[in-house]
Here is the input.
Amino acid sequence: MIAELGHLALAVALAASVALALLGLGGGAWQQAAVMRQVSNMVALQMAAVTLAFGALTWAFVATDFSVALVAGYAHSALPMTYRFTAVWGNHEGSMLLWVWVLAGWTSALAWRMRGAHAVQRARVLGVMGLIGIGFLAFLLFTSNPFLRAWPVPADGQGMNPLLQDPGMIWHPPLLYMGYVGLVVAFAYTVAGLLQGRLDAAWARAIRPWTLVAWAFLTVGIALGSFWAYYELGWGGWWFWDPVENASFMPWLVATALLHSAAMADARGSFRLWTALLALLGFALALLGTFIVRSGVLSSVHAFASDPGRGLFILAFLVLVVGGALALYAWRAPAVGAGASFQGWSREGLLFGQTLLLMVAAASVLLGTLYPMLLDALGLGKLSVGPPYFEAVFAPLMLLVMALMVPGPLLAWRRAAWAWPSRGWLGAAALALALASAVAWWVPGASWATWAGLAMAAWVVLGVARHVLQWLSQPLPRAVRWRTLRGAKGGMWLAHLGVAVFAIGVAVVSTWGHEQDLRLRPGEEMAVGDVRLRFDGITMAPGPNYFAIRASLPMLQNGQTLTTLQPERRLYLANGQTMTEVAIDRSLWRDVYVALGESVGNDAFAFRVHHKPLVNWIWLGCLMMALGGLMAAVDRRRVGPAEGTA
Amino acid sequence: MTARQWRLLWLAAAVLAVGAATTLVLRAFESNLVFFYSPTQVAAHEAPTTRAFRVGGLVQQGSVQRASSGLTVNFVVTDGAHQVPVRYTGMLPDLFREGKGVVAQGRLDGSGWFVAQQVLAKHDENYMPPEAAAALQAARAGAGTQVASQP
Here is the structure.
């Protein structure tokens, strides 16, 4: 009964989206105030219906109602309660429902934030959101209905993939979707603006906080996915250039370019067309990512099921949305005008260069991601693109971006006099190079890439420090200082420092990280960095829905036991799947990471042991970026309408 | 120099930079393509001997042999029609099992062994790596036509 209610709610939500699109776009086009007033009701109806559907599916999972095919396929009576909730999105249909729920949430937030905005603009923006809603709700209802019944009702479910039975499953998908789907707001604003033939400063000002929030969520979502893969897969890597990772990373790169470009458009009125294009491409790549992940063309933990009909549907939707938006752009762009002009050597010039570099990076990731799929689809052979390609292309581009991060914010607007940089700047550059050289010289094993990464990180830190010092030297009241510090400027500093922290983590762990596969018998020891691990033996450890063997490895330093690492190997009872559960001794300076492998006979076991210096800086840097983005997003000076009207 | 000359110079520099960057990207791309071959293709000497590639299929029943020390393991990858002996040193993925799908990445040595640097895990018990599934299917289709053409 509850399942049918959910199914019905989805149908109502689809009807509400259709009404929203018609009323919003139609009412906007013919300026019918009475029609446009109904838009809010449709948004509310859509939100309520999708929430009801989501609640119904959650109820089915929590109550393990195996008469619902989805529950029978992805849950089990022994599944702990937490994972019954996360199992809702631990499958294709449910995760698409989460997608739609997040979309409805963004639409509602947008309707609320825009309640004081111009009625026509509001109706149009929400109408575009309605169009996107139609696409995904139709996709859910017609190709991926989560509420189908199973007959005969199975006695028990098939269980959840053990890889997904982890706290990461609680946070990673919702946060990632918040970011992914959040890019739709800038898209909707831009399409509405293009329809109106006007992309003004108010438009740029409006999309900036939305993009910042979506970007911050995307950053945390991707970082969390990386963190999860690091400890769950047992390979010790944090990024694999896997197509699924790339699918979320490409929108991130475009969103990064977009939020900087929108800031320029907001502050200076320049970059309007470029910003509009980035806004369209950002969401286009989010859609493409959904296609890559959901079409089942990949072998990945994210590809739950392959069904060509689904891939075809998303592909058609993608072509329709992106093609339509780009055609609109080509048609309307000349009427919009490029905005204020600027010269190459200016703040705008450097920023444009950076956004261009980010787009080139996104394009190179796109090439490496789509080429194998394209070749496969055309039947020209199967191949994969190795991570060295991405690293070789990506690292130099990002180093260039970092090099430009420092002088950009200091140059004059529009045009800067061509002059030798001041002595302070030359000093900062020299100091950065000297620091990196010192590290590369003293610690053996450094490569050119290490050196360049460290130098650029130091350059960014020194640049931010100098910027802050300059700001501190101005006589400002304390209240103003505090407002700046927690506002857009403070956010920018924090995010840029985050980039440096991230870069240091990547450079250090990829150069001095150490990995070793070996076999150990009880009593044998091995050295890891400055500590030793001793394999004491195996114990049995039953869990709620699995059975585990647990190795005990005391970590020793100078004869003292610091801690005991206990990696496990779990056999999940529902589907007989084996999983390694790694043990990690974490610190800010290094991780010691042990994964337990299979028994190799003679009481001996295989182990994979990693020593990972500064690996946690990678995720720390991401958190700093996201926090900085959020600080800039909620900056009152930029968000509130008060200043604009005063 | 006049403004026009400056512009031309900038343009030329930009074209050069973009050209150089594109060349580097495409070279990096070309040299990092890893092609996939089925055991049948390897047996027919279609696979490269000088660069790394992937081979996939099922781990043949009873073929997994461990060395008495170290972590070297030998196994045979089959697509039903042909076999490739694989040698790998390291920890195997969780779901590596005899009779199950597998994809290995590495090179052929001179003596017919495929020396794997990486053995790829699949993520789900019910899920076959698509490359391996395709290899099995191709071999089955190939066997089918042979049978059909024999009488």
Remarks:
- The first strand of chain A starts at residue 383 and ends at 385.
- Residues 1-160 of chain A form one domain.
